[in-house]
Amino acid sequence: MANSSSFLYLALFSSLVFFIATPSLAKTSFLAKHSPAHQYLTSIKQRTPLVLVRLTLDLGDYVSSTYKPARCNSAQCFLANSKACTTECNSSPRLGCNNNTCSVLPKNSVIPTADNGGEVGQDVVSLHSTNCSNPNTLVSIPNFLFASTETFLLDRLASGVKGMAGLGRANIGLPSLFASAFSFKRKFAIFLPSSTKSYGAVFFGDGPYNLVPGIDISTSLTYTPLLLNLVSTASAYFEGDANTKYFINVTPIKINDKVVTSFNTSLLTIDENGYGDMKISTVHPYTVLETSIYNAVVNAFMSELSDVPRVTAITPFGACFNSTAIVSTRASLVVPTIDLVLQSESVY
């Protein structure tokens, strides 16, 4: 884990398979972990003719005969919660620069300060359907909404990536758009393996969630409520925008079943400015804690592992240990457990 000045992030690790699930049929697109960039990548087919487009899950040149910018004050602009309109673009018409087009603020979540104005547009998107066991036919959404902007926002994304696939609460996030297009609940589940040589899965809809044929994983899941943050904390946003991220309610933090108390526990609650509590993230490769919480956790962890020699820390981590002095089992090294307790002592 590493420290941060404002937020707590719960990072999700590994590579994915992308599913849109209904009780009888699902739509699929494959994802994989990009190890150097610590990002999870998916590919969809977009445009006319169809082109395979790689995206970073967050959630170049564009040639298409079916791309349509969303005109100001249209239903598409209302759905995208746009509050601005580009009336005159200072270049010839191109993707991201069309007159009388509604604007949004797309961002690169890998670089929190990277935002830029962009236009709302729509085009064909295609992906495979499946019965949660085997891929079947290719299905399409003819007017799939997305935001386009300048290519500098691709900075620090994995090689070959053309944008981000957002899974957030926004009306033009993938869960909302797929739910509307295929008439299922705005619901998804993510299953993440630990190796870049294998795949996990993202399921949209009610399932079943069959990672192994005949076994519905959803029957063995433990659930915790998601919190709604009414205040956006994006580096750029329109006044009144709600936060589109997913938060969970962490109560105590425990190390070896001992509650960590040497920090202001009000930081575990979302405040009036939208900061606090735990945010789930797929773009951070490790858990990030607010500085004072991080220091308290590190000190408590070091106390529980006081008999193991320290070694020089590797950035961005603050405490590293000599692994040869740690007891090992067939499963793993024997180190203090860190539990983020949720709505009850049995959910962590």
Derived from helix and strand composition plus strand pairing, the structural class reads: mainly beta
What is the percentage of strand-forming residues? 25-35%
Oligomer: single chain
- Give the overall pLDDT as a whole number: 77
Count of individual helical segments? 3
Number of strands: 25
State the end-to-end distance: 17 Å
Outline, from the CA principal axes?
A: globular
Largest sheet: 10 strands, mixed
The helix-strand sequence is EEEEEEEHEEEEEHEEEEEEEEEEHEEE
Question: Runs with pLDDT <50, length 5+?
Answer: 4-30
Give Rg in angstroms: 22 Å
| Helical proportion, percent range | under 10%
Structure description:
The chain is mainly beta and 348 residues long. The chain contains 3 helices and 25 strands. Strands 3, 4, 5, 6, 7, 8, 9, 10, 11 and 12 form a 10-stranded mixed sheet that branches. A 4-stranded mixed sheet has the order 2-21-18-17, with no helix packed on it. A 3-stranded antiparallel sheet has the order 20-19-25, with helices on one face. The longest helix is centred in the C-terminal third of the chain and has 14 residues, at 291-304. The protein is globular, with a radius of gyration of 22 Å. Residues 4-30 have low confidence and may be disordered.
